Every structure is written in structure tokens, then in C-alpha cells.
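Supplementary Methods S3. Input chains for the assembly prediction are listed below.
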Amino acid sequence: MVIGIYGLGRFGSFWASTLSKVADVQAYSRSSEAPEGVRAVTEEEICKSDILFLCNSISSVEEVCKRISPKLKRGAIVADTCSVKVYPIQVMRDNLPDYVHILGTHPMFGPDSGRYGVQNLPIAVCAERIGQRELDRILDLFTGLELRIEQLTAEDHDHEAAYSQGITHFIGRTLNLLHLKPSRISTTGYEDLLDIIQQTCNDRWQLFLDLQKYNPYTEEMRKKLHSSIEEMLVKLDSIDSIGDN
Amino acid sequence: MVIGIYGLGRFGSFWASTLSKVADVQAYSRSSEAPEGVRAVTEEEICKSDILFLCNSISSVEEVCKRISPKLKRGAIVADTCSVKVYPIQVMRDNLPDYVHILGTHPMFGPDSGRYGVQNLPIAVCAERIGQRELDRILDLFTGLELRIEQLTAEDHDHEAAYSQGITHFIGRTLNLLHLKPSRISTTGYEDLLDIIQQTCNDRWQLFLDLQKYNPYTEEMRKKLHSSIEEMLVKLDSIDSIGDN
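Predicted C-alpha cells for the full assembly:
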């Protein structure tokens, strides 16, 4: 069983490297070198993988699906790894042949949160168009990495992710505009806040944009956050200032 | 040397209990019971302490100073513990007799962050109207608790605190309005965010208000944060939505 990784960006390289500890992994990238323990192959060859993980950006999923579609192996499993699920699964359904299995996955970690290992970290799995036997192969693979598997629908994933990962990235990116600095009198809460800024801003700007634009629930989340902030500002402004209360 | 604690709210009780491990501590409160190891005394008696920590809310510092002023012991050290420093130090200067020493302190922790001990946690110290010998007594006391002492001016403290503790509390309280929930697919960044909400909202609402209203730099901080959020929202709205980029 050969596992293929399509795309060796920040996450793709990390995922290839992680999987290579428990499986035979080959990878394709137009520009990046394969990490240690991973075989670099051509685009033709990567399409012949038994399990193919798409590790390109959300915005390029459609283009990639169109490119690989005619070259895929019958009975292969194609799994995206995007941070949203409704959109890429629909794109895979629309563009990949009926004779391949389709699975949505979202590893809820990356090179930062997984730097000390991925044990017990969650991976979301949306079993959309896949046989039970094929699904079990994937689940066994994730179990081998000691991941915590969370099966849910793409809709549920996107709603929950908007109000967890989505809001965290929005806060991190927004605070980053303020150029906050470490402080000698920081509270532990502030140190947690600096960690959030650093972690979210370590990811590519494109990932942030994709998280905000391709998840059908993030616009609503941002609107609610905006209202909460305005509510809080009004509340504070309505209170008498120093010495008057 | 007797240490007095004026006010046994959430922080006062914690501070009395913490100090009682290394010193003789008595406390006064109109309504709360003294924690174990701390002697409950009258308002008259608490004013006779050698070192008196004011642990009441920022908004009541002036009233308390006026009450205790005529009863204080000559040569005593009066130290506030407010989360802002410019304002309470000015109030103490204006209201306490010349024959007592005045010190501003801000323990950068509380019952939550200090629940496993206060070792290595920072305490801000603003030596405003105090003799070197008296200052050394206080620093020795804090060293005995293994605190990390950070001496700075009240102005520097308030500016730095607005952009660290102040912004953290503002974010925590604002996010709390959204009723975010733990998620089975949470990233570590989101878990940090939930911790921040919980920690900041465990403190009294009055402390939050005081942090925002009595620090001369928090209004500017809130305005900058507001602008950053609007900037980010505009940036996201200007990008074409799903499938167009």
C-alpha cells in the first residue's frame, strides 16, 4: 500500500514526514523537496498511489482535482486535508471519477502544535463517498499514528471549526496588527495570547484567507464577534471615567 | 513585624493566605472571613500594621485612604495592590500622612494563575514615596515568596499593562459574549483561547471595569484594537468569495 502526498507546502511536508513513520510514502511537488524518508515522484506517479492525500491550498483544490482526475488508479482513496470540509468535498464529488473513493479529512494540527508528536491530537474525518473497507484502512492508518479520530459531517465540521479554529485565527491575525510585545509584567493569560498570535501567524496568510472565505460559517462568526466588540466598547464608554464612580 | 491586609475579596484572601506562609498576617474585612492562618482584626487594629496592603477595589481606594489616614502608625508602609498604578499612587500621595511610606505594588497573578504556587510569578513594584530601608523590607518579603520582582515607574507599568493584561481581559470578556464551547475538533490555539476566557471571566466584573477605566492607556488600546478589527474585516470583505479567487 503506497501513500501519496500531493503538494509539499508547510503542512504537506509535515504530514508526509509524519506518515512516513508508519507507511510507505511518496510525494509530488512542483517546487519543494521531499522531506527525509519520503520518495519524490512525478505527478504521473503520484496519481497511482493507493491513498492520495491532497495537501494543496483550499483555493487550488478544484484545479488539482481536474488535473489528477484522468490519471487516478481505480479503487484508490483520495482524501483532502483542507481546513474546511463542505467546499473541497463538493469539488471532489464534482470532479473525481466514480471509481475512486472520496474522503474529507482535517488534521487539527500542524508543524507547530505537532512539533512534539501528534499523539492524541484530533483529526476530523468526513466519510462522504467511501466504502467501509476503505474507510477502515484510513482509520487504521490514523490509529497507527495514535491520532484521536473524530468522525462528523462536513456541515458540522465547518460550523464547529468556524467558532474554534476560525475565531482563533481571526483573533491572532488581528492582534498581530497591534505589534504586541513580550512584557516583563505579563500575566499568564497574556502569555497565552502571545502564543496564539505566534501560532496563527506562523501559518501562511493564504491559509488564513481560505479559512475565512471557504467556510460558510465564518462570515457569521466574524459578524457576531464584531457585534460583541462594539457592545463591549459601548458598555465601557457609558461608564463614568476616573474618579466619578 | 505585622503585616495587615485591608479587604478580603477574591485577591485579598489569596494574598493574605500566601503571605501568611512567610509572615505574621492580620486582616480586616467588613464581610468576609479571614482565611486559615490569618488573624481577623478590627479596622482600628489593621491600621496599626507595620506593612499594610490595600486589597480593596481600585474604585474604593480613595474612600479607604480617607478612612485609614488618621489612624495609621508612624513609619508604617502602605502598599496598594491595584491592577493600575498611576491612579492609586496619586490617591495615596494626596490622602495619606507624610509620616507613612507609600509603595505601589501589582502582583501579576491571582487565585487562578497562582493556584499551584506563586514562585517565579512577577510582581510589579513602583517605589514612589518610600525610604530605601523600608523598600528593602518589602523586597525581602517578596523574595521570601520567590516572586520575580519587576521595579518600574507607575507610568511605565500602566502603559505596559494596558497592552498586556488590559487587552487580554478585553478579549476574554468580549469572546465570553459569544458563549464559545469546548470542541472535539479544537486546535491547541483554540484551547488556549478558552483558557483565556475562563481565567479573565473568573475575576470580578468590577476588576475588569477598573482595569479599563482607571488605566490612562486602555482607551487608546481599545481604539487601536477596534481599528485593527475593522481593518481585518474590510480586508476579508474585499476578497472575492468561494470559487472566485
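The beta strands of chain B are 2-6, 24-28, 39-40, 51-54, 77-80, 101-107, 122-129, 148-151. Chain B touches chain A through 64 residues (CB under 8 Å).
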